[in-house]
Prior knowledge:
The complex is a heterodimer. Chain A is built from twelve helices and 19 strands. Chain A has helices at 24-35, 58-65, 104-114, 118-136, 143-160, 197-202, 259-265, 323-329, 335-340, 377-397, 419-422, 482-497, and strands at 2-4, 11-20, 40-43, 139-140, 165-166, 168-169, 206-208, 213-219, 222-231, 238-252, 275-288, 303-305, 314-318, 347-354, 360-365, 368-372, 401-403, 434-439, 465-467. The longest helix of chain A is centred in the last third of the chain and has 21 residues, at 377-397. Helix content of chain B is 63%, strand content 0%. In chain B, helix 1 (3-19) crosses helix 6 (92-109) and helix 3 packs across helix 6. At the A-B interface, helix 2, helix 8 and helix 9 of A face helix 3, helix 5 and helix 6 of B.
Amino acid sequence: MSHIAFTDEGVVDEVDHVVVGSGAGGANAALVLARAGRSVALVETGAWRDPHDYPKSAWGGMRDLMPRTGASMLVGRAAWPIVQGEAVGGSTVINSAIRVRPPSDVFANWSRQFGLPGERLEREVADALDAVDAELGWEETPDAALGRHNELALRGAGALGYASHRTDRYTRGCSGCGNCLNGCRDDAKRSLQRNLIPEVLARGGRVLSCAPADRVLFEGQRAVGVSGHFRHPADRRRGGAWRLRARRGVVVAASVTGTAPLLHRSGYRHPALGAGFRSHPGTGVHGWYDEVVDMGRGATQGWSSMAFRDEPGFKLESLSLPPELVIGRLAGGGRTLVQRMDDIRHLAMWVLAVRAESVGRVSTWLGQGVVHYDLNAADMVRLRTGMTTLARTHFAAGARWVVPGIAGLPYRIAPDEIGLMENAPLDPRAYVVILSHLFGGATMGSDPATSVCDARGAVRGAQGLWVADASLIPNVLGVNPQATIMGLARVVGAAAAA
Amino acid sequence: MNPIRALARVMVAHVLRALLPPPPNGPTVDFRGAAGRLLAEVSPLMWLGLVGSSLGFVLSPVTTIGWPLPSFWLPAEALDRHADRFSHHPVYLLRAGSTLLKMCAAFAWGELPAVRQGWGVSTDVADPRTWRP
Lengths: 498, 133
């Protein structure tokens, strides 16, 4: 078994396949390759952290587990943050491990819009996810982990008469400690550095952590390896150079913000590289309850609803944030804000994620990925409608008032003032939104002129090069993407192993 | 210490305190220490965001409360009004910056076990800062 973290020494090695990125995509592609008997090297920008290494403070989570200490932003009318994980295991370390299989309409749409073999992909992804389910295990959010903020959400949705449910998650024995975003110290979450990647190592694979990839190496059109330099996980100083030669090929799964820029700075050119960026932009509405809610107790995202996925086009979920992040979102400053901190224990936060139709792009600037993205008017209406739906749900659950978090509106809104939210401005700068589900940049499709990859993730115009992350996905799913990414990555891994 | 870094630390600490000031009989929050640690640990982009937003706070009282003075020189009452209005500032980048600054101010508060107890969350926030070698 072999793991190399930061070192000042150089590392040179040769394997069958190099996989760049160890998140939901890269880890699954590497596993398929290792099971096929290939020697695999998995390289990851972040450090390998086990549960006893996970940070405990809110700032520590941003510093230790996110790229650029959590300061990745998109470029557009509004400066919204992009939330991703940077660790061995990728975002599976910091997300809520939500398990939702891609609905059939996703594949039908891929066939219709992008000429992909939707039926075949649906079957292959379903088979792959059967295996993922069996290997990782999952559970519906159990009673013991529900917490008051999830119970209230179920109550509110029930009172309004729309369908909602406890979230299915890749967890085993979740106790509801509410620390998903900082990594699960109970080890109940099935983060991939704890579950699938150890099998890659056991099968003779190698993991290089703290190892951002500089370039994919080409000989002619064939990808023959990957090179980079180690980066220290604490002081970020540059370490030794590493160079991995790949006898059979390279699989890139460096995330939507990383894959297209890596290909670009490696000299690969395609008119669609970086195009087709899409997302599920999300924001939250807090409800204030007479009772103590303590949203930090209970599963971070133990409740969800797909009732509005098709029309108007958003999904709803609970989300518990650390108090520090909640305070940053509350309006006001000075003594006013200090007084509002007294509300913390009475707040429940529920969020929506828009199934957005807006399209952006991922460009490369100084070698780094930059996301250019703006929501169009229809998506802004969806965002506002979703927020209003959340506010109504809070009131139906018994909230005394809600905190809309929209610039220009009062700090708190009573039930008879909900019209203020319905008529809130559609300027994106009035909203505090985050992007955590990202798609595109190296999309798959049947048209060589408009898609970087084919239906198996093979990069057009190159040999021995595949993409195996959400960069492949040509449109928004309207559901949490982790399962879809894992399923697709296994399909790509099998193609690379063939 | 590099004078620019020292000045940045003083300025950020001043802004964090102004945005989330402890009440007279409240906890003793170490904003200076928190600002120093944050500025040492953040990525270059976040450093620019923190320092740039803080500079915006210091220079903008004329746009919020009509006082043509840097926020360092405002009396307590005026500083408090400026802090409140800064978070509603019509200039988007300043308003967005206030979100970052308020979160960082809350990081400073959150270092105190008594404060965390009041928030109903774990009082143990000692980050191990370790990784698998």
